[in-house]
Amino acid sequence: MQPNLNTLRAASFCVLHGLNIFVLVMLPSKQLFAASCESVARIVSLEGSIEYKTANTEHWNPAVLEQDFCSGDALRSGRDSRAALRMINDTLLRLDHSTAIVFTSVAQKERSFLDLLKGALHFISRVPRSLEVNTPYLNAAIEGTEFVIQVKEDSAEVTVYEGKVVASNASGSVDLISNQTGAAASGQAPVRIVVIHAMRWPGPCIIHPCQYNGTRRMKLPIRS
């Protein structure tokens, strides 16, 4: 008995539909990503455990080298883990261990916004960039090429290597220039700290705790 035309059409549709699903599943994640959102940052170096979650979700997934991220995505590094990302505005962003950030709004030419929830970030760019980094204790409006911002248990600080920063919160603000640090504790206005020696990343104060001598900052790791 020969199958009728309708039966052949139905069978062909099922085969083609199944093939489409197979192709979508087998497509590289980058191709699927490109169709879903505009990339604002890409991992260019990765060490240890780095996880991400997309906007409006709560599920964390392992990140991989050369992975892209959209505005609204979050990224976190585990213990003894680090990563470097190239942002769409050609800024190199380095995450220290135990760091969590959100790409709030990253633009190629306009001002970009990031949320630093904990840990430390190092930014470096060939040309001055307009960037605002928000933390639980200190907001930093930055016009510069290199700086480090760090969030601790009950305070935050930003060190400017090249450029200028306005560090502010609800209690006040302070202007910073190259080789100056601004810090703010919970519920207190930011203050300017005299930097004896502004170490470049990954200076010991990024990787290890630092000791202080009054208002003059000693860039030396605490000895165990």
CATH architecture descriptor text of the largest domain? Sandwich
Distance between the termini: 87 Å
List how many beta strands DSSP finds: 16
Mean pLDDT: 78
Number of helices: 3
Q: From N to C, what is the helix and strand string? A: HHEEEEEEEEEEEEEEHEE
Sketch the major β-sheet: 16 strands, mixed
**Helicity level, as a percent range?**
10-25%
CATH topology of the largest domain: Jelly Rolls
Q: Give start-end ranges of low-pLDDT stretches.
A: 13-35, 203-224
Oligomeric form? single chain
Counted up, domains total 2
Strand content: over 45%
Describe the structure using short key phrases.
single chain, 224 residues, alpha+beta, Jelly Rolls, 2 domains, 16-stranded mixed sheet, 3 helices, 16 strands, 50% strand, disordered C terminus
Fold and architecture overview:
With 224 residues, the chain is an alpha+beta fold. The chain has two domains: 1-36; 39-221, Jelly Rolls. The protein has helices spanning 5-26, 29-36, 204-207, and strands spanning 41-47, 50-53, 61-62, 68-69, 74-77, 82-87, 92-95, 100-105, 112-134, 139-151, 155-169, 172-177, 180-185, 191-195, 210-213, 216-221. The chain has a 16-stranded mixed β-sheet that branches.
Topology, please?
Elements: H1 5-26, H2 29-36, E1 41-47, E2 50-53, E3 61-62, E4 68-69, E5 74-77, E6 82-87, E7 92-95, E8 100-105, E9 112-134, E10 139-151, E11 155-169, E12 172-177, E13 180-185, E14 191-195, H3 204-207, E15 210-213, E16 216-221
Parallel strand pairs: 14-16
Antiparallel strand pairs: 1-4, 1-6, 2-3, 2-5, 5-8, 6-7, 7-9, 8-9, 9-10, 10-11, 11-12, 11-13, 13-14, 15-16
